[in-house]
Amino acid sequence: MSVTQAAILGIVQGLTEFLPISSTAHLLLVQHWFGIQDDMMIFDIALHWGTLVAVFIYFAREIGQTVIHTVLFLIRRPRGAAAREEFLNHYPYALTGGLILLATLVTGFVGVFCLEFFKFLIQSIFAVGVTWLMMGVLLILSARIKNLERERTLAEMHHRDAFFIGLAQGISLMPGISRAGATILMGLKCGLTPRDSARYSFLLSIPAILGIGLLKLEEGIQFFRMRPEIYGTGFAAAMIVGILAIKVLFQVLERGKYHYFGYYCLAAGIFAMASPFLKP
């Protein structure tokens, strides 16, 4: 893999990680067209760490408050409904931290039991195209689904919301199903505001990406030492473009145009399904 290819893959990761169009599917498709046959897991993790740093930069203050408030809750352990309510009034981000942990556990449960099926899908560009079509249909239909409840903020989230959003993140391990798209759509369906659905989705991505990255950290360091220009270029491109993509996503959500990405997913799915027959 050349430095140019690494930069292109980093740009693709940065653009598609936060938009509801599936970064995994795009990376698989681009790698297929580049003719890259090597195991790309470590490089893909490096790209995801690049977009993870973008999340840390964009949400630095909120992430810091969530960590501090959650740790204080675990240390003080307020007992009784009244004590917990008083604590959360002073440290509201503790609730967000707890709900992120709950959703992460649900995602992990889905991942453990469906891992082999997800691995099978990754091996087929055609299968990725099919799941891409599914994502497109869900996005298009989301424009017609109206939640009857009033919109709620993160401070008003329920444990039930975290469970279903964590379940959506687990299902998004299928290549072609966007993690950001699935979790934001589920957040909207649960009654969260568009902005808070996106905020929770981004914060929820942190433990998932960190967990996978830490498991492969030693191996990743070894690969980086062998090809620092490749891994450094991909990481930097994903981080820089990722910050811009987050800003674009919030603008799209505020304008109510999120479902338009569904038409792109339909086109991408058809192209992916035809790709094995088109590529010489």
Question: What is the topology?
Answer:
Blueprint: H1 3-16, H2 23-34, H3 41-58, H4 60-76, H5 81-90, H6 93-122, H7 125-142, H8 159-171, H9 179-189, H10 194-215, H11 217-226, H12 228-254, H13 261-278
Features:
0% strand, 280 residues, 13 helices, mainly alpha, globular
Provide structural commentary.
With 280 residues, the chain is mostly helical. The chain has one domain. It contains 13 helices and no strands. Helix 1 runs antiparallel to helix 2, helix 1 crosses helix 3 and helix 2 runs antiparallel to helix 7. The radius of gyration is 19 Å and the shape is globular.
Task: Summarize the structure in short.
This protein is mostly helical.
* Number of distinct helices: 13
Question: What is the overall silhouette?
Answer: globular
> Which structural class best describes the helix and strand composition?
mainly alpha
List the quaternary state of the chains.
Answer: single chain
Tell me the major beta sheet. Answer: none
Give the DSSP E fraction (strand runs of 2 or more residues): under 5%
Contiguous uncertain segments of 5+ residues = none
Strand element count? 0
Helix content: over 70%
Q: Total domains, how many?
A: 1
Reading the helices and strands in chain order gives: HHHHHHHHHHHHH
Distance between the termini: 19 Å
Question: What does the radius of gyration come to?
Answer: 19 Å
